[in-house]
Amino acid sequence: MDIQRANEIAASSVMVNVSYEGVPIYIQHVNEPNEMARIYPLNQPDKEQNVPLHTLKEF
């Protein structure tokens, strides 16, 4: 996923279908300089992690 689209999704009030390794996730924050995103699985909001943007897929 590119940085611009990840920022749009993170800022949106509308839920967008995004996955990380096949798991539906929520994007909390995008770290542009490092091209990373702070995410968590929709069914496990306590499992926050930082992942590379290129590993996120919009579906």
Summary tags:
globular, sporulation, five-stranded antiparallel sheet, SH3 type barrels, H-type small acid-soluble spore protein, 59 residues, 1 helix, alpha+beta
The CATH top-level class label: Mainly Beta
Query: From the alpha-carbon coordinates, what is the Rg to the nearest angstrom?
Result: 10 Å
Please state how the strands of the largest beta sheet are arranged side by side: 4-3-2-1-5
What fraction strand?
35-45%
Between the first and last Cα atoms, what is the distance in angstroms? 11 Å
State the shape: globular
Structural class determined from secondary elements: alpha+beta
CATH architecture: Roll
Domains (count) = 1
Please tell me the overall pLDDT.
97
State the share of residues found in helices, binned by percent: 10-25%
Which fold name corresponds to the CATH topology? Answer: SH3 type barrels
Spans of 5+ residues with little confidence (pLDDT < 50)? Answer: none
Number of separate strands: 5
InterPro entries: SASP_SspH
Main location: other
Protein name: H-type small acid-soluble spore protein
Pfam families: SspH
